[in-house]
């Protein structure tokens, strides 16, 4: 009689763990198998990943030392043209006091952050809200800005010149030309890849259905263009939104490919889905802690000792 599926899976997991422990380069299928590790096998996976991390810290000249950058968040606008089914950041115009923060409000937040010892100003905002909401278009027109990105650029300049904080921009998907225009005013930028699973964007009921900026091919192009332009970039994945383990592994490998090609990815975030009230995915189970731990460990092994993980 042939081996059962569970026996084959257990054998594949043992083999993948052994290869990871021996420092052998894994493929997508092996990484996906490791994402299923639980119990003692998860403990072993975490140990392997910890060794990879520690080796990177030793090579960086700071063994055992994990660093961070103090930053203040500036929510420039909470309007967005996308309709992500789990998002609690985006709002509709009538639930906001204004479409955007005014320049003085931006600077007040930045100055407060600088006084608290922050070094960076992290601009958070929705993607191109003027393409969906007339209120956003009217606000920009009234102040002489052609687009949200024009206002992002002006705000970054103001913060840099008047507070000394370093702008880190998260305006969503950007073209090569837009990245080039923003690069002189921002030492770094970011955009979560989230997932390469196109079906989660293209199929009705998917978490990214109806969100033009969440098409994986579009986000991958932005990630690649950021490297071509030479922008230090933060990206990452969101787990637990309906992707399979293979799709999750493919997302990590896509990030690794871009990072290796251009050397611009400075940080990768592994974010776990949490269900929020008043969202379309309020009834979806949270990503489990073991799932998050296994994904972080696999990300460390796949991305290598030099990558910074959050």
In short:
By secondary structure, this protein is an alpha/beta fold. The protein has 11 helices and 6 strands. The chain folds into 2 domains: 189 residues, TIM Barrel; 104 residues, no CATH class.
Task: Explain what you see.
The radius of gyration is 21 Å and the shape is globular. β3 (166-170), α7 and β4 (188-190) form a beta-alpha-beta unit. The chain is an alpha/beta fold. A six-stranded parallel sheet has the order 1-2-3-4-5-6, with helices on one face. It has two domains: 1-66 and 188-310, Aldolase class I (TIM Barrel, Alpha-Beta Barrel); 68-171, no CATH class. The mean pLDDT is 96. It has helices spanning 5-21, 28-34, 39-59, 103-115, 134-142, 148-163, 176-182, 199-202, 216-229, 245-262, 289-303, and strands at residues 71-77, 120-125, 166-170, 188-190, 233-239, 265-272.
Q: Which characteristics define this entry?
A:
310 residues; alpha/beta; TIM Barrel; 2 domains; six-stranded parallel beta sheet; 11 helices; 6 strands
Q: Give the terminus-to-terminus CA distance.
A: 46 Å
What is the SS-derived class?
alpha/beta
Please identify the top-level CATH class of the largest domain. Answer: Alpha Beta
Named CATH architecture of the largest domain: Alpha-Beta Barrel
Low-confidence stretches: none
Instruction: Kindly state the percentage of residues in helix.
Output: 40-55%
Find the count of extended strands (DSSP E, 2+ residues): 6
């Amino acid at each position: 009689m042939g081996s059962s599926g569970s026996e084959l899976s257990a054998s594949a997991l043992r083999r993948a763990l052994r290869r990871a422990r021996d420092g052998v380069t894994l493929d997508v299928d092996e990484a996906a198998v490791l994402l299923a590790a639980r119990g003692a096998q998860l403990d072993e996976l975490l140990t392997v990943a910890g060794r990879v991390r520690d080796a990177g810290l030793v090579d960086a000249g700071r063994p055992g030392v994990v660093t961070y950058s103090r930053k203040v968040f500036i929510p420039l606008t909470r309007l967005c043209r996308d309709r992500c089914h789990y998002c609690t950041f985006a709002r509709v115009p009538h639930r906001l006091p204004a479409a955007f923060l005014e320049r003085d409000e931006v600077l007040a937040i930045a100055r407060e952050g600088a006084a608290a010892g922050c070094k960076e100003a992290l601009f958070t905002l929705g993607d191109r809200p003027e393409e969906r909401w007339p209120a956003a278009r009217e606000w920009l027109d009234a102040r002489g800005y052609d687009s949200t990105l024009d206002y992002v650029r002006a705000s970054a300049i103001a913060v840099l010149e008047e507070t000394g904080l370093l702008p880190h921009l998260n305006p969503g998907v950007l073209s090569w030309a837009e990245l080039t225009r923003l690069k002189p005013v921002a030492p770094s930028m970011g955009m979560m890849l989230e997932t390469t699973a196109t079906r989660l964007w293209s199929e009705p009921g998917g978490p990214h259905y109806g969100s033009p900026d969440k098409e994986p091919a579009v986000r991958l192009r932005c990630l690649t263009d950021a490297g071509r332009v030479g922008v230090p970039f933060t990206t990452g994945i969101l787990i637990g939104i309906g992707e399979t383990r293979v799709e999750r592994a493919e997302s990590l490998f896509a990030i690794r490919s871009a990072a290796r090609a251009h050397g611009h990815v400075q940080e990768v975030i592994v974010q776990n889905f949490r269900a929020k009230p008043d969202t379309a995915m309020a009834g979806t189970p949270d990503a489990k802690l073991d799932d998050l731990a296994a994904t972080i460990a696999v990300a460390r092994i796949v991305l290598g000792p030099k990558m910074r993980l959050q």
